Amino acid sequence: MRALYTAATGMAAQELNVQVISNNIANMRTTGYKKQRAAFQDLIYDHVRRVGAQASDQGTILPVGVDIGGGVKTVGTPRLMSQGTLSPTGNDLDVAIRGEGFFKIQMPDGTYAYTRDGSFMMDAQGRVVTAQGNPVQPTITIPQNSSQITINAQGQLTVILPGSTTPTLVGQIGLTRFINKAGLNPIGDNLFTDTPASGTPQDGIANTDGFGDMQQANLEQANVEVVTEISDLIAAQRAYEMNAKVVSAADQMLQSTSNMFR
Amino acid sequence: MENMLLVGLSRKMTLERQLDVVANNVANINTTGFKADRSLFEEYLRSPAHEDNFVHADRRVSFVHDRATFHDFSAGPSEQTKNPLDVAIDGNAFLVVQTAAGERYTRDGGLQINNQGQLVTASGDPVLGTSGPIVFQPTDKEINIAADGNITVLEGTGRTDSVRGKLRLVSFADPQTLVKEGGNLYSAGQGIAAQPDTTSRVRQGFIEKSNVNSVHEMSRMIEITRTYTQISAMLQQQHDLHRTAVEKLADVPA
């Protein structure tokens, strides 16, 4: 009874589908989160009678074959890197990217990670850091007692120093882009690392060369649409149930055979 | 062996195969671009299972076996994903995929870009344009796929479209000759050429869902289960009949 195992692959696939959907829903309010979807493919087929095989001595050819499929497999969980909506926060160190690019963050071990979450803060030394305390690249230190932090569309950060009335440029937040954003590896904390699939990071300046621009006092919301997720969840749940039904049908058939001769 | 048992057995075997096909359809109810399969059966005449070299030929017994699985190529529902690299095909065309084993065809338009900038399927095989694989530059943005499959981008700070290629769309005189290879791919039978398709349209930002109809599959499944249990019951009755006959006939009065 191959159907038993075929339906089992279907149940496993839908289980993973629900996992992906629930992770999207869980991160509905996560700044800079990018939703995923589960991508499925059919498994290998058993060609019981191959189409085009010879059907008789007269050389007639089978117009259609008998192909029995073995179920479904998950091929990946591609990430949808579309723009999320910007929501104003009124906080000077919140930055959202409108368009292409990621903020580059230096991790404690010296490696780099990338994020769309621009809710930055100042640490004790005045550096611009993420919520985990990792500095955004290139590292920017804001002098003490300075006021009126302004970040323009290119990411240039200016402040008014004590005793001055004109803005002083203290640094520029850079952006990094990848040819295949969907190939980035998520490491949690809203961070991604580059992989062979994402291609090498290309550093650049916001608002130039096709990079997006920066919007101060805004944050990018998750690109999760609740309606889509809930309808996908219902579909996944139904599909799981139906695969379970197939399992019990196959079971019933086997039972009727084993009960044939008492 | 009894003919009845053998005929019943042949039917039960085809029903198991039929359930296998239904199970595969149901398992792929969420598979992008999947096309459901149907089983077809035929009568298969054989001599009864005993000597038939008489002067007059014996009456023949009909068995059953599955003749074919027929692919249902009707369109599946389209779902809007807003992902620029998702394409759904309106019409009978297929996308052409370059695999290690040669050209393959697919309806699964959930595409990706690999680290070399090539347009690939979810499993990483290049999708072919009219002049080979389609390659994007690292500075490309705003990928636009037109209804005829033309792919344009804005390169760097450019304000005008740069063309990156045109999706190759093909169709077949008889799509039933296509063989499912798994991985959402079809291969063309020997000597069957893919024809360029000009009537189908590509829709960016949509994917074609599986065309498996759950209600159909469930009713088919119930039908299969019921038929199967009926045959089991029938064979059991036949068996009981024989046993009773043997017992009664062997019951020699003292």
From TrEMBL, chain A:
It is found in: Bacterial flagellum basal body. Transmembrane segments: none annotated. Its main location: other. GO terms for cellular component: bacterial-type flagellum basal body, distal rod. Residues 96-159 form the Flagellar hook protein FlgE/F/G-like D1 domain. Residues 4-34 form the Flagellar basal body rod protein N-terminal domain. InterPro entries: Flag_bb_rod_N, Flagellar_basal_body_rod_CS, Flagellar_FlgE/F/G, Flg_bb/hook_C_dom, FlgE/F/G-like, FlgG_G_neg, LlgE_F_G-like_D1. Pfam families: Flg_bb_rod (PF00460), Flg_bbr_C (PF06429), LlgE_F_G_D1 (PF22692). The keyword Signal does not apply. The keyword RNA-binding does not apply. It comes from the Bacteria. One of its GO terms (biological process) is bacterial-type flagellum-dependent swarming motility. The basal body constitutes a major portion of the flagellar organelle and consists of four rings (L,P,S, and M) mounted on a central rod. The rod consists of about 26 subunits of FlgG in the distal portion, and FlgB, FlgC and FlgF are thought to build up the proximal portion of the rod with about 6 subunits each. Belongs to the flagella basal body rod proteins family. This is Flagellar basal-body rod protein FlgG. It comes from Bradyrhizobium icense.
From TrEMBL, chain B:
One of its GO terms (biological process) is bacterial-type flagellum-dependent swarming motility. Keywords: Bacterial flagellum, Cell projection, Cilium, Flagellum. Its main location: other. This is Flagellar basal-body rod protein FlgF. GO terms for cellular component: bacterial-type flagellum basal body, rod. PANTHER family: FLAGELLAR BASAL-BODY ROD PROTEIN FLGG, FLAGELLAR PROTEIN. Residues 5-35 form the Flagellar basal body rod protein N-terminal domain. It is found in: Bacterial flagellum basal body. Residues 88-153 form the Flagellar hook protein FlgE/F/G-like D1 domain. Pfam families: Flg_bb_rod, Flg_bbr_C, LlgE_F_G_D1.
